[in-house]
């Protein structure tokens, strides 16, 4: 009987988890990871700012799938087999203590991605997984019930099963291999990206963070709320990244030429109008110059520019603010 040889293409986190699981499930099989670069787990090393965001502490499956607005239906049956709670147990059973941060992200208590890298490499070694670096794969060819791997070095070898974990952009060659094997490929599009706004009317705000904004994709029902950060090319932060994730397909269909609307208070316009009108009568506010103190927790640098866009002079007091300027400020 021919021995089972399982090839795992890609030495990232998915590749290691797949290889370890395969080796532990089929202890008599030979399991080999083929990584084209000289180092494995390179993305794990830099993830989470070098701390490695391992998983999320979502307490239930319904809560977990909320983090995947486009993929919830597809992922739910998979998460019923292996989810974040299994991930936590997997690492803790191998001596890695995890901690939960206020936003639900979980990191090793060491705050070092090396802890996760060491755990994965040690688990692979214990399971008997062979790791080959500088071993890029050029092609996968079906040979009866086996698969022929052609490596960049010119080497060819037959394997019983192939697990492709070569990653997404820019490592898209894995999709070509799968297509040649007759599998249907769903064209991948970018997700979790910042917005480049070349004509942003607000200037010199790089590094300014707003605690909670509402971001909406114009002409769409897609909205998100959360912190936002100004960058030198546009805007970023959790609210923007989540919106890019939810609208990944729609934004790709627009060739990334779109308009986004930002609500810096994350409140309804009539609520903002009422609060600003109330400030005009408030003894603590009405005598102050409009540009000098920002309401709603808006950063001062941002507020000053919003006031300028509303054509409000530096010498204008709240009590004297004309209705048209107040309305423009709300807009």
The pLDDT mean sits at: 92
As a percent range, the share of helical residues equals: 25-40%
**String of helices and strands:** EHEHEHHHEEHEEEEEHEEEEHHEHHH
Unreliable spans: none
Rg, nearest Å = 26 Å
Q: What is the CATH third-level topology name of the largest domain?
A: FAD/NAD(P)-binding domain
Second rung of CATH, namely the architecture of the largest domain: 3-Layer(bba) Sandwich
Looking at CATH, the homologous superfamily of the largest domain is: FAD/NAD(P)-binding domain
Query: What strand order characterises the main sheet?
Result: 11-14-13-12-15
Terminal CA distance reads 74 Å
Strand content: 15-25%
Give the helix/strand class: alpha+beta
Count the E strands. 15
* Principal-axes shape call: elongated
Main beta-sheet strand count, sense and barrel state: 5 strands, antiparallel
Descriptive notes:
The protein has 331 residues and is of the alpha+beta class. It folds into 3 domains: 176 residues, FAD/NAD(P)-binding domain; 69 residues, no CATH class; 62 residues. It is 33% helix and 21% strand. It contains 12 helices and 15 strands. Strands 11-14-13-12-15 form a 5-stranded antiparallel β-sheet. A hairpin with a 4-residue loop joins strand 8 and strand 9. The model has no long low-confidence stretch (mean pLDDT 92).
